[in-house]
Design goal:
alpha/beta, globular, 243 residues, 10 strands, two-stranded antiparallel sheet
């Protein structure tokens, strides 16, 4: 088993055992997108969606297969996962495009594929990102928020699912309690896989302060609303709309 397969096997086990509350988060995401679509004026064009850090779409695909989208564009840093995501949306009635790319460069590049195989400067109606932005530094998060704000349509929405720190909580304190949560509560997966997650988050995770990120987003022209918060004071879903 190569490195990607080992990492992805661990990720899938975490999702399958609902250790990061993916089921509740998926339900909240579905409600948010369906509610947003229902509020769009009659006769509105079918929305264009960009998914930043799309992964394999195992959880989101059932919703995406029935959404009336104009197009879907999935980006992920892991190229091997893109064919898995594409297979989930095979046969949908709207064009899909796939790209190996990091979300910050997408936010800053200034063009978006409006359909498979072509580029357009048209605004994006729906931006979704799940458990990806927390890999950015605080400065990069600000750049991402500003870039995404410049790319979203006036009546569009950014749905941001991620882990966040308590207001005023240090990264070290957050990591300590998350590591404790894994070691005490993640008994349904092998200990070596739990350690693999600990190693990853210790090196790569930089969750935003939940209060500070709201202020940062507002400074970038976003209105912020928390839609769902998990029971462990980490996982959460926020809806950002242009001010």
């Amino acid at each position: 088993m190569d490195f990607f397969d080992r990492q992805w096997s661990t990720y899938r086990r975490v999702v399958d055992h609902d250790l990061m509350e993916h089921q509740a988060l998926s339900a909240a995401t579905t409600a948010a997108i369906e509610g947003w679509l229902a509020q769009r004026p009659p006769g509105s064009p079918q929305p264009h969606m960009v998914d930043l850090g799309c992964g394999d779409l195992a959880l989101l695909a059932p919703l995406l297969r029935r959404l009336p989208l104009g197009s879907y564009h999935g980006l992920d840093l892991s190229a091997p996962v893109l064919p898995r995501a594409a297979a989930q949306l095979q046969g949908v009635p709207y064009p899909c495009a796939w790209r190996e790319q990091d979300l910050l460069s997408w936010a800053l590049e200034g063009s978006v594929p409006a359909d498979a195989g072509s580029a357009s400067t048209a605004p994006v109606d729906l931006i979704h990102s799940s458990f990806a932005v927390h890999h950015l530094s605080d400065e990069q998060k600000g750049q991402f928020l500003a870039g995404a704000r410049s790319r979203v349509a006036p009546d569009g929405m950014l749905l941001w699912a991620d882990v966040f720190r308590d207001p005023g909580e240090s990264r070290d304190s957050y990591l300590q309690r998350y590591v404790q949560r894994i070691r005490k509560g993640w008994t349904s997966i092998p200990a070596e896989e739990g350690q693999r997650v600990i190693d990853h988050l210790s090196q790569f995770d930089f969750p935003a302060d939940a209060a500070a990120i709201e202020s940062m987003a507002e400074a970038c022209g976003w209105g912020w609303q928390w839609l769902w918060r998990g029971q462990h004071r980490a996982e959460a879903l926020a809806r950002l709309t242009p001010l």
